[in-house]
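User: I'm curious what two different proteins look like when written out as structure tokens. Can you demonstrate?

Assistant: Sure. I'll show them one after the other, since each token string lines up with its own sequence. Here's the first protein:
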Amino acid sequence: MIYLIVGNILSFIGVVFLALSSVVSDKKHTIFYQIFDCLFAVLANIVLGGFSGAIVCLAAFIRNVLVYFGKNNPKLMIIIAVLMTILGALVNQHGLIGWLPIIASIQYTLWLGWGFTSNKSVKLALAINLIIWAAYDAVILAFPALAADLIIFALSIFGYCRSCRIEK
């Protein structure tokens, strides 16, 4: 029971950072908050026994740190995407449905790797990522995660629209 409580507290902290990342108005802060989202998601998944989620989130953590420090490039992002795919597949416990988080994370990794890193672009990529995660969470009946995905999806779309206005 204590694992469930601790895991959900860690998950909630991660969701707060993800929500913050969707409303800030510059790329550096967006990625900064996503680093902490990934860190808490890794810890939550480990505590809750979701090892495929932990692997995907760990790779996303590394990806975000590289992006934050300007060390991302297409080759490095491909390597991270390949590792995410292989390791995620090895520990996948949910069959075809278990591929959705892997697909979502690969989409975001490759998006960042190909230089689509303006704040507006990061918001759009995050929205796509979250809608895929929402589908996964709906299928596995993870309703709190689904609610967070949909709320943060809406915040990301709001942040994207706000970034479009700022750029004009």
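Here's a second, unrelated protein for contrast:
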Amino acid sequence: MTPQPRPHNRPAGHAIIDAMARSNYEPPADAAALFAQIKAAHDTLRQLREPLREMAVREMRENGATIGDLARLTGYDDEKYRRMGREAGIERLRPPTRGRLTSD
């Protein structure tokens, strides 16, 4: 007997939706340790979000750091710092190379 094809986004008929939402899963020690490290890293990043924004804006405004400099030093994407600078009203060093050009 071959299984009947079913739509990709639908659970099998025997699946219980409530059971999929919660479980009694207890990870083994190595998985629990890794998951705890990941959660701690996310918590740390959340705590550093505002100090990073303040420092990045200060460095762009007072010391001439570019979005590329900040991205290279932190590992974040250029766009993160581009948005921070835009929100802080920091003047662009050059006009954008993509997108619609507007006359001022």
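A detail about the second structure: The chain has four helices and no strands.
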